[in-house]
Every structure is written in C-alpha cells, then in structure tokens.
C-alpha cells in the first residue's frame, strides 16, 4: 500500500483529511510518533487515527510507519534535482548583449514573426501573444509550408525569430532559406545548437545548452525551459527599450 499514492481521497472524511494533511506536513516526525502524538497533532482521537490507518490499507500503526518512512525517503531522493534543470552556465557569456541586439531589431520592426514546430510552436505562440500585449505587430507561425514569402512580399522591416531545439529541422531550414538574401527580413533564432543551420543563417542566435532527451526515437522530451527563459528575457528587454525610447 502507498500512502502518497492513495487514490480514494474522496472516501476520506473531514477528520481523515485533517490527519492526512498533518502527516504530509510533518513527514520527518511521523515515523517517530506514537498514535497519541499523531492524534494530538491532528486534533483527532486515537481511535480516529487508527480508523484512518486501516482505511488507507495498513493493518497496524507500526506497519504504516515503516512503509511511510521508506516511501517518503524514496520520494525525497527522486526529487533532488527537479528544480535545477539548468543554471547560468547553460547560456553563453554574452547572452545579455545578444538579447539587447535582437530586442533592438524588434523595436523598430513592422512585423515580428515567431516560428516554431511542435513544442517550439507552442512557445512561438506564447512569445507572439506576449509581444502583442506590449503593442507590437506580431504573430506566430507553426506551419513551415505556409506561404510566408508571398505574405511578406510587399512588406519591409520584418524580423523572424525561429525557435528550434536542434536547429536542424529540415522544414524550417527550407522555409528560412527563402529569406536569406532578403533586404527586408532579418533572421534570428532561439536554439539549443549554436552550430546548427538555423543558428548560422540568421544574424543573431540566442543559444543555450541543454541535454537532448528523446524517447521512442521520435518523441522529443528535451526541456524547453531555457527557451522560455530566453523568450521572457527578450520580451522584457524589448519592453524596457520601448519605454526608454518613449521617455526620450
């Protein structure tokens, strides 16, 4: 039986839930408590504690304590690095300077297009929405076969920001190749591979280092947290430059 994995929470009474929450909040002390200690802490009776213990599947209080201590320790060991997925070392030393340069390009752009596929496409939509909230004309593009060249044919001063973890997505590379020699469109990227084609064909690349993770060969589980971090940093700098320009 698993305490933290107990699924029939809806079958617990109000008193049971008070005991349950007390155990969760005092996980380090519970293995050393007696029934009366737990009952006092949870403001319940000894009999209520024992009914709770039986209800969640244990035949005795000692059995519960041994099982709980093991389960709690395993849970703590498995959670050691959940919030340390990346550090400042994941970014180049000059990343702040590059962010300022890309934001400066976006500041005076007539059109800002965030491009991405899959999970990167979702981040492109997020970036576009946030930039639009700041008052900039922008939109997201998740379809690499969309006739973007024709749409931007009679426009100028465009900035394309492509998001790609690998920087090698063939469909995106082919799409961006249409703008390589365009005087009206500047290519930039946010990528996990500074040596990739998408990073190389753009004027600036906001890059990061993160371990690539795939399952079943095709499914990419690589963390997108660094990409979102860069997007937020870019939009913050864009807003700061816009405010400074208005003041001056």
UniProtKB/TrEMBL annotation:
Residues 1-75 form the HTH rpiR-type domain. GO terms for molecular function: carbohydrate derivative binding; DNA binding; DNA-binding transcription factor activity. This is RpiR family transcriptional regulator. Residues 102-244 form the SIS domain. Keywords: DNA-binding, Transcription, Transcription regulation. PANTHER family: GLUCOKINASE, HTH-TYPE TRANSCRIPTIONAL REGULATOR HEXR-RELATED. GO terms for biological process: carbohydrate derivative metabolic process. CDD domains: SIS_RpiR. It comes from Companilactobacillus heilongjiangensis. SUPFAM superfamilies: Homeodomain-like (SSF46689), SIS domain (SSF53697). InterPro entries: Homeodomain-like_sf, HTH_RpiR, RpiR-like, RpiR-like_SIS, SIS_dom, SIS_dom_sf, WH-like_DNA-bd_sf.
């Amino acid at each position: 039986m698993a305490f933290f994995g107990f699924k029939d929470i809806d079958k617990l009474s109000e008193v049971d839930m008070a005991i349950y929450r007390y155990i969760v909040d005092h996980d380090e002390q519970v293995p050393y408590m007696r029934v009366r200690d737990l009952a006092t802490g949870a403001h319940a009776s000894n009999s209520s504690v024992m009914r709770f213990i039986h209800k969640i599947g244990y035949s005795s209080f000692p059995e519960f304590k041994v099982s709980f201590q093991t389960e709690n320790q395993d849970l703590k060991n498995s959670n050691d690095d959940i919030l340390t997925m990346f550090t400042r070392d994941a970014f180049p030393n000059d990343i702040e300077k590059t962010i300022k340069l890309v934001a400066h390009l976006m500041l005076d752009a007539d059109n800002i297009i965030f491009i991405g596929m899959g999970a990167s496409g979702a981040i492109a939509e997020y970036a576009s929405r946030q930039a639009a909230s700041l008052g900039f004309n922008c939109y997201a593009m998740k379809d690499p076969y969309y006739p973007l060249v024709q749409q931007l044919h009679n426009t100028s001063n465009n900035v394309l920001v492509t998001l790609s973890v690998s920087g090698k997505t063939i469909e995106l590379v082919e799409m961006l190749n249409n703008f390589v020699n365009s005087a009206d469109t500047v290519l930039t990227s946010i990528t996990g591979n500074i040596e990739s084609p998408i990073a190389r064909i753009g004027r600036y690349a906001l890059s990061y280092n993160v371990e690539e993770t795939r399952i079943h060969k095709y499914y990419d589980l690589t963390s997108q947290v660094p990409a979102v971090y860069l997007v937020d940093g870019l939009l913050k700098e864009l807003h700061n430059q816009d405010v400074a320009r208005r003041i001056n």
